[in-house]
């Protein structure tokens, strides 16, 4: 069969370390959602199945967390009870906070209700002295509550996507000033705490256009078919690093959001719905790694604190198998580039645009609002199953070994050659998502692993359109707008029922088996 996928190696072949950078951080909508029982149940499942170590969310200082208010005469009033309840849950679970300092509390906001259904106050604080005092006060509170060693293991990121109007009603210079004040406040509490930024959105063509506005670079790419030939750069990154050098500021890590589709909106609400090539993410991450290596902060960690197949919370491809395959391919093609690439988000308990209007509404989450896993959840679960030693990898697969046990684990992804792009966004309907899933032809998978004990058992699990595909199960029921509890339970069972079989090595200690993978399939091969 043309285009066979071959996985072949010896069990004791030389290896290199394989950090699971994909499970370091995961995203969620806002802090207050983390007080919900369904959110907490889903994070518990995601942590146990996918191994997520840190979680990042917006809204730490929003009104609904009651962190900061003022008396009539302007004296600060601090209240950390809701934050404590959330952070206590996270740490008890074994998940650490990747702290995003933002947005402004209402009492400090220059403008209010600038973005999101829940009315985030995306403007600079009116009083940077009071802001600095808030940062110092809550950081000291965490150290008192959780201990210095614990808090030193956290990350402190300044704001979110300040280059986008609405998220930040201010200028780039104002953001840099905010970073300076915040970073100094953190380091004044303890010099070993880790702080970073600029947490900007997306990459744009050529960094010289990533200044106060993205209008110029947007006009450059509008209507072009060769967008992948352009020199894409992280917004504000070079200017941010230059500013920090000039002001002698700490940068323990850098952050940005390398979405491959759906160009971010500018201050006028204008944008282009673009889809870059399937290698956009590996290329962007490698470029960022090189940029940091050549900077004045070569030892800074690189954390991409938001990422998925699309930056839209209403992109129907988020619910589908192609998104899971895209995620898997991109992650395995980006090894040794960054310290984390945080999937945005783990759950559809997410209210930036209000609640989704139906079960499968294209939400960011890898788990639906009622708790049903989407294909992307299975992708991260399979990635988590990989070993910590890399034996061999190719265009369509990776073979690993677990150092402690010597067990082998391989993961195969069939991203169709007929799709040269990242998964095209499907904003207004499911039509594009359906067309994308229909692309491609089956491919033969041939596995030959030697150096095993005779009869060594392996578990082979396949995720495809017929197995573990939640939205497929929903369609099979007629796509009910308001599923009954019985229907939801059925969809959930089908969503968790991947195709599983057991195969054995021969008496010669060689595992040999062939199978056919449909387009967009994932196959996990685990030694038992």
Would you report the number of β strands? 22
CATH topology of the largest domain: TIM Barrel
Q: Biggest β-sheet: count, sense, barrel?
A: 8 strands, parallel
Q: Architecture of the largest domain, according to CATH?
A: Alpha-Beta Barrel
* Neighbour order of strands in the largest sheet: 3-4-7-8-9-12-13-14
Helix content: 25-40%
Instruction: Name the overall outline.
Output: globular
Mean pLDDT, all residues: 92
User: Helix segment count?
Assistant: 13
Q: If you compute it from the alpha carbons, what radius of gyration comes out, rounded to the nearest whole angstrom?
A: 23 Å
CATH fourth-tier homologous superfamily of the largest domain: Glycosidases
Question: Structurally, how many domains make up the residues?
Answer: 2
CATH class of the largest domain: Alpha Beta
Strand content: 15-25%
Unreliable spans are 207-223, 264-269
Structural class: alpha/beta
Distance from N terminus to C terminus (CA atoms, Å) equals 29 Å
Secondary structure elements and pairings:
Blueprint: E1 5-10, E2 16-17, E3 25-30, H1 37-50, E4 54-58, E5 68-70, E6 76-78, H2 81-93, E7 96-101, H3 128-146, H4 148-152, E8 155-158, H5 172-189, E9 194-201, E10 203-205, H6 215-221, E11 232-234, H7 237-247, E12 253-257, H8 280-293, E13 301-307, H9 321-332, E14 340-343, H10 375-384, E15 389-394, E16 397-401, E17 408-413, H11 431-437, E18 443-450, E19 457-463, H12 470-476, H13 485-496, E20 499-504, E21 511-517, E22 522-527
Parallel strand pairs: 1-18, 3-4, 4-7, 7-8, 8-9, 9-12, 12-13, 13-14
Antiparallel strand pairs: 2-15, 5-6, 10-11, 15-16, 16-17, 17-22, 18-21, 19-20, 19-22
Helix pairs in contact: 3-5, 9-10, 12-13
């Amino acid at each position: 069969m043309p285009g066979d996928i071959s996985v072949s190696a010896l069990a004791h072949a030389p290896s290199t370390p394989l950090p699971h950078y994909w499970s370091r951080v995961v995203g969620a909508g806002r802090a207050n959602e983390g007080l919900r029982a369904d959110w907490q149940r889903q994070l518990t499942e995601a942590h146990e199945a996918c191994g997520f170590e840190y979680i990042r969310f917006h809204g730490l200082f929003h009104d609904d967390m009651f962190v900061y208010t003022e008396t009539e005469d302007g004296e600060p009033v601090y209240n950390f009870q809701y934050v404590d309840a959330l952070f206590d849950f996270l740490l008890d679970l074994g998940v650490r906070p990747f702290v995003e300092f933002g947005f402004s509390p209402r009492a400090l906001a220059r403008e209010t209700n600038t973005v999101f259904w829940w009315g985030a106050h995306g403007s600079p604080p009116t009083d940077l002295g009071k802001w600095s005092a808030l940062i110092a006060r809550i950081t000291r509170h965490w150290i008192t509550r959780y201990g210095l060693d614990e808090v030193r293991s956290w990350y402190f990121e300044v704001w979110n996507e300040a280059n986008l109007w609405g998220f930040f009603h201010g200028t780039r210079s104002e953001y840099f000033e905010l970073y300076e004040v915040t970073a100094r406040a953190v380091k004044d509490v303890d010099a070993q705490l880790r702080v970073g930024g600029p947490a900007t959105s997306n990459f744009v063509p050529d960094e010289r256009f990533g200044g106060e506005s993205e209008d110029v670079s947007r006009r450059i790419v509008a209507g072009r078919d060769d967008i992948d030939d352009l020199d894409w750069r992280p917004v504000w990154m070079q200017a941010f690093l230059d500013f920090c050098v000039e002001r002698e500021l700490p940068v323990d890590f850098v952050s940005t959001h390398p979405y491959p589709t759906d160009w971010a909106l500018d201050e006028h609400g204008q944008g282009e719905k673009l889809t870059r090539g399937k290698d956009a993410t590996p290329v962007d991450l490698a470029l960022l790694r090189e940029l940091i290596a050549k900077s004045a902060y070569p030892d800074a960690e690189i954390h991409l604190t938001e990422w998925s197949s699309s930056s839209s919370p209403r992109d129907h491809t988020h619910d589908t198998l192609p998104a899971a395959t895209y995620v898997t391919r991109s992650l395995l093609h980006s090894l040794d580039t960054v310290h984390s690439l945080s999937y945005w988000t783990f759950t559809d308990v997410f209210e930036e645009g209000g609640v989704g209007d139906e079960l499968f509404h294209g939400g960011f989450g890898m788990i639906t609002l009622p708790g049903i896993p989407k294909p992307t959840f299975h992708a991260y679960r399979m990635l988590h199953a990989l070993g910590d030693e890399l034996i061999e990898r190719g265009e369509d697969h990776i073979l690993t070994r677990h150092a402690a046990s010597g067990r082998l684990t391989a993961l195969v992804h069939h991203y169709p050659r007929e799709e040269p792009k990242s998964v095209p966004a499907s904003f207004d309907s499911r039509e594009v998502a359906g067309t994308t899933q229909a692309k491609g032809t089956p491919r033969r998978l041939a596995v030959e692993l030697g150096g095993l004990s005779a009869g060594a058992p392996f578990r082979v699990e396949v995720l495809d359109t017929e197995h573990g595909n939640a939205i497929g199960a929903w369609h099979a029921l007629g796509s009910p707008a308001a599923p009954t509890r019985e229907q939801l339970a059925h969809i959930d069972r089908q969503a968790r029922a991947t195709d599983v079989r057991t195969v054995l090595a021969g008496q010669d200690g060689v595992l040999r088996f062939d199978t056919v993978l449909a387009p967009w399939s994932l196959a996990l091969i685990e030694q038992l």
